[in-house]
Amino acid sequence: MKLQHLKIYLPLIGICLVYFVGMFLDIMDIDAAQYASISLEMMKNESYLEVLHRGEDYLDKPPLLFWVSALVFKFLWVSNFTYRIVPVLVCLLGIYATYRLAKLFYHEKVAYLAALMCASSFSVFLMNHDVRTDTMLMGWAIFAIWQIAEYITSEKWKNLFLGFIGIGLAMLAKGPIGLMLPALAFGTHFLLAKKYALIFRWQWLVGLGIVAIVLLPMCFGLYQQFDMHPEKVMEGEKNTSGLYFFFWKQSFGRLTGENVWQDDSDPFFFVHTYIWTVLPWGLLVFFAFYDLVKQAFTKTGLPEYLTLGGFILPFIALSTSQYKLPHYINIIIPLSSIFTARYVYVLLKNPSYKTLLKIAFGVQWANVVVVWLIGFLFIGWVFPLENILIWLIIIALFILTFYLGFSGNTRFQRLILPSAVTIIGVFFILNIHFYPSLFAYQTGSVLGKYLQTQKDFPQNRFFALHRLSGDGKDIFIHTVDFYSGNIQPFFYETEELVGKIGKETAWVYLDQQGFAEIQKYGLVKILNSFDKYHVTQLTPLFLNPATRLQATNKVYLVEFNPQ
């Protein structure tokens, strides 16, 4: 490999190394841990078409993540790494697809920058260790758009097949949004590019047939598990249709209000969320989108309108949803990366954009300073780092950031590379030190690992009792299940738990209220105590070492002998 090529690939290699480190982290409560435990349960039960959650019918997310994780567990081993391996590979495929899609319409430098921006976005780093359904959704959706764009250009059937297989897999990852994103992107492109004939191609019917074949196993499983059993009660109602839930209620029901999930987020929730979602490129994205819209309606127009429709229409649709979470918007990161890369390329090549380029430099260097300050805060104060080797690596990346900013050979290097190195450096801090320190307070995984090391652990005599809830006080059972290797009995009422335990000795995981209540029914011996915190809800009170214990809750593993 030539030295010049190595320089080009080094940022992407650095990003992949940080991804790799993150694959060994503990799985995070709540969602990722739930999906990992469902996958473990599926592997043990071999119930691949009927998805069960702790022995009961599960109707929420499509099964692709469960299928691939269960199969990897079966043929390799159960671990943090194996749970993440397929989603991370699909994400890497999505980053490559982002490069190839951009290259179809723009200069190769735009394509490279689009891939770099996508790979180095905050949420992409995050989704490759906090693996939920969105990791594969993003990868398969952008892969599908790339392949169908290739088909339109080359008219090769293999691209059509691959594109619609990608749509099917995106739908298997998270539902109809996997179809809606390509449909909105290409619909906008065909209309604004005035390629109306492409809308009515009969080949799209073949593509939909391919999607139907990909979805067939899931549909059969849903029909068999739910539609054939109208007596089953889901969300307090009978006559639940799994097919209706997948194709309508779970996604579109959030727009109509039919889905029970609601929150109080405002319609502009994703506007401010997206700034940190694609950090360190967040503000550039909004400048780039404004320029994209302006260029789209000039006489010259744009080479493509996929990124315009594929970004703004899902953004608006998701913003009208009655339930919003930050990761819902991750699916459009590749498309925003492409139009942002196009904008930056224009800034760097066009002398008339001198003022805008200065603003871009200012914005990016503000990001660099703030993000590095946060990183050093994590290792210098929140969880002090004592490993000298890791300190040396971090300092080297910090020095490299400013060296590239002030000594780079090109404006591209001075504008882009400092931001890229900064986010790589800070996520290296997070994955190598901050998260491992944080997970000491995720007591479900701590306890699950502890149980596996105890030789005197009474098999089939472990129980969890959940008495308090809300405000981060929940006792989450999924990490206990995953790390202990078994689906553990879980109760909400002390009397019910004691009745189930019977007259033999048992180990019980419980909170302070449960500890006080269970003492009325027998002798209780504390085997271990833990300081618990809901690690996805970081607050200044917890991050401050002096006040951290005020933010945590005591939970216990006890030996209980009924009287």
Lay out the secondary structure.
Layout: H1 3-22, H2 31-45, E1 52-53, E2 56-57, H3 64-75, H4 80-105, H5 108-119, H6 122-127, H7 133-154, H8 157-174, H9 177-192, H10 203-227, H11 242-249, H12 253-256, H13 269-277, H14 282-296, H15 306-319, H16 333-349, H17 354-382, H18 388-407, H19 411-438, H20 443-453, E3 462-465, H21 478-484, E4 490-491, H22 494-501, E5 506-511, H23 512-518, E6 522-532, H24 540-543, H25 548-551, E7 553-562
Parallel strand pairs: 3-4, 3-5
Antiparallel strand pairs: 1-2, 5-7, 6-7
Helix pairs in contact: 1-19, 2-3, 2-21, 3-4, 4-5, 4-7, 4-16, 5-16, 7-8, 7-9, 8-9, 8-10, 9-15, 13-14, 14-16, 15-16, 17-19, 18-19, 20-21
Provide a concise account of the structure shown.
With 563 residues, this protein is α/β, with parallel strands linked by helices. It contains 25 helices and seven strands.
Question: Can you put this structure into words, describing what you see?
Answer:
This protein is α/β, with parallel strands linked by helices. The protein folds into three domains: 3-254 and 287-348, no CATH class; 350-440; 442-562, D-Maltodextrin-Binding Protein, domain 2, CATH 3.40.190. It contains 25 helices and seven strands. The strands form two sheets. A five-stranded mixed β-sheet has the order 4-3-5-7-6. Helix 8 (157-174) crosses helix 9 (177-192) and helix 13 packs across helix 14. The mean pLDDT is 90.
